Amino acid sequence: MKRLVALLILTLAARLPLARAQQAPDDQYVVIYALVQQADSLDSSGQLQQALAQYARCRANWENSRRFIRIGTCGLSTSA
After folding, report:
1. Considering the domain boundaries, does residue 15 fall inside one?
2. What radius of gyration, in Å, describes the C-alpha atoms of the chain?
3. Which of 19, 29, 58, 60 has the fewest C-beta atoms lying within 10 Å of its C-beta?
4. Structurally, how many domains does the chain consist of?
5. Which CA distances in Å does 64 have to 11, 28, 41, 46?
6. pLDDT digits over 32-66, tens only?
7. Nearest to 42 by CA among 31, 32, 54, 33
8. Range of the domain at 75
9. DSSP label at 23?
10. According to DSSP H, which parts of 1-80 are helical?
11. Which DSSP letter does residue 22 get?
12. Would residue 12 count as lying in a domain?
């Protein structure tokens, strides 16, 4: 039973990046903004290590969204 639960969690975790890549750019910005707010809250409450980890996740999400948007717009701009 524990193996089944672990397998289910791993399967869902593997699909998460695909789901994020299919989000519209506006949705991605909202997610990133919420992550930044959470990191700011952690920082203001004195939880510096957690805040730094959250800021790192924000940066990774931002870089991934920028890459996704550039790929999408490149296809549109070259066909025009």
Report:
1. no
2. 17
3. 19
4. 1
5. 21, 10, 23, 28
6. 888 889 999 999 999 999 999 999 988 888 888 77
7. 54
8. 24-79
9. S
10. 2-21, 25-44, 48-79
11. T
12. no
